[in-house]
TrEMBL record:
InterPro entries noted in UniProt: Transp_IS110-like_N, Transpos_IS110, Transposase_20
Pfam families: DEDD_Tnp_IS110, Transposase_20
Keywords (A to Z) from UniProt: Coiled coil
Protein name according to UniProt: IS110 family transposase
Annotated Transposase IS116/IS110/IS902 C-terminal domain residues: 275-362
Length: 399
């Protein structure tokens, strides 16, 4: 016998369907909660299947973000072999029936059947705690950066309605000095009522390591900006309230992002692979940490094409009869964050010729008539082959 248990995992609970062997389901499907009692009931059922078949049943379930984590940790603690299936693969398996029926019990049934249908399923190898910590930090940084960008856009919208000329004063509008100064002088009227000397003192109090002369010059520019500003008086006090809130949010996000970057750098430096990836020109600390955390252990890939597929950068193939597609887009079925990091690394590498080999390859593709985006994808594919090679050899990239 070859027993398997299919789990359709949802938020806080899982649907269970066991098979003693192919086409031989065992008992009716049932549900258990993701708590101590529920996991205990599942384990008793697992032991029951093991006793009947004489073999420990494997468990099959699909990746569901963070919902599967309690089950995964339980299986790890009890050393139960499990298969964590890509949702794309399980979705295709669920469509094999002619009947269009969707229930948790049927989904658990299909997941159990998958074990017998696919010979190339590999038991899941959980990433180390250090890698998962690094992945969590880099993903949190990406998520927070996305929110930070949205707040910046909202801030600019309000600033354009309150004090648009302020953007001409400081070279870096979002620097802490600029934002804190704006927190003191949010409207042209407030600037006009203050002396240049007092404004200069306020600027210096924001922690900027500049001379009094520089601060006085900025105060003069701020005065001129207030004179040029089209809003002679503020009609909407609500805009000022919003501006204050957005400035405080931006400063808070900057502090959180800075702290996250320090944590990411400190953790990434504990990996030898971090410096190996950083040896590629154009790849900085944050990009290297993201690539490392998304790939995990390189030993799980025995060929560079598998790493390419994991990044979702393998070309899709469409052939039917005499028809053979000539435009094949990448599948985008792998790690979106790994793919985005590779794109960013390519952009950094070809800019200012930081990576001459990559730039030459990009120029070659462009000369062949490839559009910019197609050339970038080709470079990302080339880059991931280089990453695979240096991680396997444990040797830094040689320019």
């Amino acid at each position: 016998m070859d027993p398997v248990i299919g789990l359709d995992i949802a938020k806080g609970k899982s649907q269970v369907q066991a098979f003693l062997q192919k086409k031989d389901p065992y008992k009716k499907s049932f549900v258990f909660e993701h708590n101590v009692l529920g996991l205990h009931d599942f384990y008793q059922f697992w032991l029951e299947v093991e006793e009947i078949t004489g073999r420990p049943p494997v468990v099959v379930f699909e990746s569901t973000g963070h919902y599967h984590e309690p089950v995964l940790q339980f299986l790890e603690d009890h050393q139960i072999v499990y298969y964590l299936v890509n949702p794309v693969l399980s979705h295709e398996a669920k469509k094999m029936s002619l009947r269009k029926v969707k229930t948790d019990a049927i989904d658990a049934f299909r997941l159990g059947e998958m074990y017998y249908l696919y010979d190339d399923l590999q038991p899941f190898k959980k990433k180390t705690v250090k890698i998962m910590n690094l992945r969590n930090l880099t993903r949190q940084h990406d998520a927070l950066t996305g929110t930070y960008v949205q707040v910046k856009l909202q801030f600019q919208t309000v600033l354009d309605q309150v004090f648009p000329e302020y953007k001409t004063v400081f070279g870096a509008l979002y620097s802490p000095t600029s934002l804190r100064t704006l927190l003191h002088y949010q409207t042209p009227q407030g600037v006009k009522e203050e002396t240049k000397e007092k404004i200069a003192e306020v600027i210096l109090q924001q922690g900027v390591k500049r001379s009094y002369g520089w601060a006085l010059d900025k105060a003069h520019q701020l005065k001129e900006a207030a004179e040029r500003d089209p809003f002679r008086r503020n009609l909407y006090t609500s805009h000022v309230v919003s501006l204050t809130m957005f400035i405080q949010l931006l400063l808070q996000y900057q502090r959180h992002l800075s702290k996250l970057l320090k944590e990411i750098d400190a953790l990434a430096e504990e990996f030898d692979e971090y410096e190996i990836i950083r040896s590629l020109p154009g790849i900085g600390g944050k990009i290297a940490a993201t690539i490392l955390s998304e790939i995990g252990e390189i030993d799980q890939f025995n060929h560079p094409k598998k790493l390419v597929a994991y990044a979702g950068m393998d070309p899709s193939v469409h052939e039917s009869g005499q028809f053979k597609a000539t435009i094949n887009r990448i599948t985008k079925r792998g790690s979106a964050r790994l793919r985005q990091s590779l794109y960013n690394a390519v952009q950094c590498g070809i800019t200012k010729n930081r990576n001459p080999k990559l730039r030459a390859y990009y120029d070659k593709k462009r000369e062949e008539g490839k559009p910019h985006k197609v050339a970038i994808i080709a470079c990302a594919n080339k880059l991931i082959h280089w990453i695979y090679a240096i991680l396997k050899s444990k040797k830094a990239y040689v320019v």
